[in-house]
Amino acid sequence: MIRRTLPTVFALLFAAPLLAAPAGQQTLFNFVRPADVVQVVTNGTDLPQSNAEQTAEGEVLRRVTFTPTAQPSLRLTPQSGAWDWSQSGVMSLRIQSAMDWALTLNVTIQSNDGKTLTSRVDLPAGPAQTLLVPLQAFSPLSQGMRAGPPMPLSVDGQRVLLASSVGELDRKQVVSVTLSMDKPKVAQNILLERFGVQNGDDVIKAAYSSLVDGYGQSNRARWPEKVTSDEQLRSAANREGQQLKGWLAERERNGLDKFGGWTKGPGFDATGFFRTEKHDGRWYLVTPEGHPFYSLGVNTVSASDQQTYVEGREWMFGDLPRDGEPLAAYYGQGDNSVALASNAGRGFNRGRWFDFYGANLQRTYGKPCVQPKEGEPEPPCAEGFDAKRWQTHTLDRLQAWGFNTIGNWSDPALGLNDRVPYTLPLSIVGDYASISTGNDWWGGMPDPFDPRFAMATERAVAIAARDHRDDPWLVGYFADNELAWAGPGDDPKSRYALAYGTLRLTTDVAAKRAFLKQLRDKYRNQQGLSKAWGVDIPTWEQMEDPGFEAPLPNPEHPEIEADLKYFQKVFADTYFKTISDSLKWHAPNHLLLGGRFAVSTPEAVASCAQYCDVLSFNFYTLQPRDGYDFDQLKALDKPVLITEFNFGSRDRGPFWGGVTEVAKEEDRGPAYANFIRQAVNEPSIVGVHWFQYLDQPVTGRLLDGENGHFGLVGITDVPFQGFVESVRKSNLQAIELLGKAAEKAKVDAQQKAAKGIDHDDSGGKGRSGSAGSGAAGHAGGHSGNGH
């Protein structure tokens, strides 16, 4: 480590005046005019003694170079003792990237008791700004939303970058502040001036104040579809209506059956319900009329899922309706303060909410109330939300845009119009036990050995199938969504997190008893298990105790991994078989569409293939093959449905671009087109479903605060025209691509037949397809961003 203490004065001072510190800021150290009050320690960084420089904006700053080492850092400490920051809210640092690109900077603040507060700062290119790091854990989630407003912002004429922070700190005993970078490939430069502390309440208030206008749109940006008046809403609706008529007329000439099946493709038996079949080495969904069906779907097509909490943060909204006004009908009450990982650290997650989408539908389609003449009764006021009109308009959109499937979490009434095939979720809820894998974004894994799980499954399937048993428009049912089959990592503890988590529980849990029975049946006693696992287990009762920790797999004792793997296989088999058996009884005509994996294990995927008709995955990747090893999936020989994917940006209002974020709105269409093209070219993929229909609220949805722009339609019910046109073009081309892929599959099959190679055209509607044993999954996924 190299230690350098800066001299009292610089040899070089510029004539340009230094920018005054903001009101209320306590400056502890100035890199341009240093004093012996702070020690500066460099490690892999270069801080020349006389290198102050003037920026294009006239500020005088000091250059620091982070060299390409493992973790170059610059550490600030008091000359003696510790800093008392108990009366301050944020650490402040005047800073600028000296590069032509954004930099990522780590800030670590430590107190005398060893506690640390950390912040990962995305430092944009451009003029200097004041970086503010809150001295107590702070994030946009604490303000009720997944991502915060764009930074930097202007406060009192200065650029301010408000960062997030995590951890804990004794603010009375602060002993160091460290700036660092992670493994820069080339030298990176920043410019620094004042370092200090200040009260941060006013800045936080300024950053989040008046975020949203009266239409639910961000006040922090402008874009082509942004609405400024009710008249603009109505005009946009009229223009769109004419466009949809033309597009729907074109659709009638596209050679589709009434379910959206491809009438010019291979012919299959018409069974009256959707099913799967493999033909010429390629898997297909088949319509009730016997035609190939490539499922192009949209998730969350609903008018009742766009509310956002306003209680306690009314200052974030510029124009909420007053009580008694017509739009006040779109207020409601909710409580999403559940103890789930998806909700951890979130503020403003209960109380009064407002539905901007519903209010905008009222503005667009509602009729003003007619004032009665004197002595006449008051006429009824037209409802702004006409459910039937909304359903018809929405289905027109989906069909005009080339979609043919209503995806998960959509308004069930849409499927009853006999226009677009639909899917349904199975909501298996009960008081059965659950197992934590450490990746419990939506909760722990259901214990399928618990008799109460079978009862809950039977009840859920019976309710779901009650009104749909003979509906040919229903494609099938999903077995839950994004369950935590593995832990958050690639290490053995994550790979086998379900087995480890089960053994830590008490024997009151059925899964623990099932695992212990498996081990006792194999090893008979603790001596046999101790030898196989290479550990000392004095008594069998020790394994029954809560908190038992199984050893890690190792080459010397291969039975450890074999036992963990076998338990996870039996667990997954029991889970999927329970659902499959119930669905066979209550809904024998419809498909079981898999578990919508985000996190998976090979055992879970293989069991899903064995008991379900379709394997389903949520892929937040640029192309399907980035989401899973399809060469391994090939061994399972099952059709695959991609049940979630999207591409978002941050230039249309909502502050989050999603997991697969692109740079700008214009990039979303090409990304969609590429994904569709890659999916159609994969013989096992039978469809892809976009997430989601509408943008999420700027200030976060009720469920977990997600606030992403990845919708086809904005909160104003105005479509993103450029993106929609691109999506429509890609969807219509999918049929052409499917035709080429089918022809290629046919030629390949003929060539294999000529060579005497069996290409296995097994298929059909059954739920008993055999699962291969060589599949390998991944313990990845996006459950941290899940839906």
From TrEMBL:
GO CC terms of this entry: beta-galactosidase complex
Region annotation Disordered: where it falls in the sequence: 750-787
Domain Agarase CBM-like: start-end pairs: 70-181
A GO MF term: beta-galactosidase activity
Alphabetized InterPro entries for the sequence: Agarase_CBM, GH, Glyco_hydro_42_N
Domain named Glycoside hydrolase family 42 N-terminal: residues: 511-625
Basic and acidic residues: compositionally biased ranges: 750-764
Signal sequence, renumbered to the chain: 1-20
Top-level taxon of the source organism: Bacteria
Biased composition (Gly residues): 765-787
Keyword Cell wall biogenesis/degradation: no
GO biological process, one term: carbohydrate metabolic process
Keywords from the named record: Glycosidase, Hydrolase, Signal
Name the record gives this protein: Beta-galactosidase
UniProt source species: Pseudomonas asplenii
